[in-house]
Design a protein that fits this description.
single chain; mainly alpha; 2 domains
Length: 489
């Protein structure tokens, strides 16, 4: 069968990829990390009944679980849109071969079935089904429930591709889509509309009348067919392409800041014009939503959780951008060495851009202060700390970066640019605030932590020129090693 041969080609391509030949230790780490994630998901699915019984006391565990599926599949769809790859490129090498076009179009869609998100969903749903649904329901009802869930997973899989294809270049539609989901969450939580109740009722009807499973199965089939039509529309080599003038943000106002401003302008253009940094930019708002997880009445007295949440919500885009300082420019890093560019100004542009991202994030997340005055203090202290301390730590760590990044590749499961410097750099960046909190807790005054962080951040801002001078010396020492490493593909 041709489809099986094509899938076999894909498997060989994955195994023979140069990525797996780079580091045995990294491969071992990735395998262990993957197994750990899968085991965690299976454990959550297996103990979901006990967790839900404690949260929703007096309510059926099955009803609670099925009602929450609306939130699960909504979040799953958002994550697929952000990081999942549209399966168009993989079929291009076969378009000139004597193969049926329909076969080539079905191949990338079928190839996505054992994808990461599908595997995670199955590992989450199956333990709950075996432990709770199968013993409690009739055999036909239990299998009807399972078929419905699998159909919804498949529908989400293909719906995510379509959203990515049609919304990727339409930011207003993306914002409207996200606002719609958030509004539905809010209205359901406030009992204005009963979405979770409707989902629970629908699953009960399917369990009592298994014939109704034809509805989710047809829905999944419809999503598959629409994805198939999308691929057919965008898979012609010979199609006439309209001549359009590509426009991206110019950020011309930054040129008024001198040489550092011009470098910031170029880097922002790089972010908006390339796939991977642009994907990182979209992931930032996801981390900024951490506040809705940690800022609840049960967690407001747990300083470690509040510190962790404040660290990310006040500077998520900056943290994602800073972890690959210099590696973002690995494809044209030699330009900075060959031209008469002030290296100190170059590092200053990094500091200014990092600070600007922190300021924007902090302003957007200011409403979190409504959850409590202690949150306002924590977030402000971490905002100042991230600008005055974390920014310089990231620049220092970046000077030891030795891994090249291909800006055109997808962000999902892509570890280019990630090396020992990035892994070890997490220790001081996240560890310093945690250590200070632990010491202040032993002293009996946890609030002192945040004033220390503010003092550290303000000191970094006051002495930023001296710190940049020291970082410039480190950069001068390492720049040729970085250039040699960035040239390797």
């Amino acid at each position: 069968m041709i489809i099986l041969k094509l899938l076999n080609h894909q498997w060989k391509e994955t195994l023979r990829s140069t990525f797996w030949q780079r580091s045995i230790l990294l491969n071992i780490f990735l395998v262990i990390a993957s197994l750990y994630i899968i085991m965690c998901v299976i454990s959550i699915g297996y103990f979901a009944d006990e967790i839900l019984a404690k949260i929703f006391k007096g309510r059926s565990v099955i009803d609670s679980f099925t009602g929450l599926l609306f939130y699960y599949f909504s979040f799953d769809l958002i994550m697929r849109f952000l990081v999942q790859k549209v399966p168009v490129v993989t079929m291009q090498p076969y378009l000139t071969l004597p193969l049926k076009k329909s076969t080539l179009l079905h191949y990338p869609l079928i190839k996505t079935i054992p994808g990461f998100f599908n595997l995670i969903a199955i590992c989450f749903m199956l333990p709950f089904w075996f432990k709770v649904i199968l013993p409690a329901a009739s055999l036909s009802g239990a299998f009807a429930w399972l078929i419905t869930v699998i159909s919804l997973i498949a529908a989400n899989n293909y719906m995510g591709f379509m959203l990515k294809k049609y919304f990727a270049k339409r930011p207003l539609l993306i914002l409207f889509f996200l606002a719609l989901i958030v509004s539905l969450f809010y209205l359901d939580l406030k009992a204005k509309i009963g979405i979770t109740g409707a989902v629970t009722s629908a699953f009960k009807q399917i369990g009592q009348h298994p014939f109704y499973t034809i509805i989710p199965v047809l829905f999944a089939g419809c999503m598959y067919w629409l994805a198939f039509l999308m691929l057919r529309k965008n898979s012609y080599i010979e199609e006439d392409k309209k001549v359009t003038r590509l426009r991206s943000p110019g950020f011309s106002f930054l040129s008024r800041l001198g040489e550092p401003g011009i470098m910031m302008q170029n880097e922002l253009r790089m972010v908006f014009r390339n796939k991977r940094p642009r994907a990182m930019l979209w992931l930032g708002p996801v981390f900024m939503l951490y506040g809705f997880i940690f800022y609840n009445p049960h967690e407001l007295d747990k300083q470690v959780f509040l510190l962790f949440a404040g660290f990310f919500v006040t500077s998520a885009p900056a943290l994602l951008y800073g972890q690959y300082f210099f590696a973002w420019e690995s494809s044209y890093f030699d330009m900075y060495l060959a031209n008469r560019i002030s290296l100190r100004g170059y590092l200053r542009s990094k500091f200014w851009l990092y600070s600007a991202l922190c300021i924007i994030s902090y302003i957007i997340t200011l409403p979190y202060a409504l959850f409590g005055h202690n949150i306002a203090l924590i977030n402000f202290s971490l905002f100042v700390y991230n600008i005055g301390v974390t920014s310089f730590l990231y620049i220092l760590i970046g000077t030891y970066s030795r891994s090249r990044i291909d800006l055109g590749k997808s962000q999902f499961m892509n570890y280019e640019g990630t090396g020992a410097a990035q892994w070890l750099g997490v220790i001081p960046i996240m560890g310093i605030p945690m250590i200070i909190l632990g010491l202040c807790a032993l002293a009996g005054n946890t609030n002192l932590t945040y004033f220390i962080l503010i003092a550290m951040g303000v000191s970094g801002l006051l002495f930023n020129e001296h710190i940049l001078s020291l970082l410039t010396r480190v950069f001068l020492k390492n720049k040729y090693k970085m250039a040699v490493a960035f040239r390797k593909k």
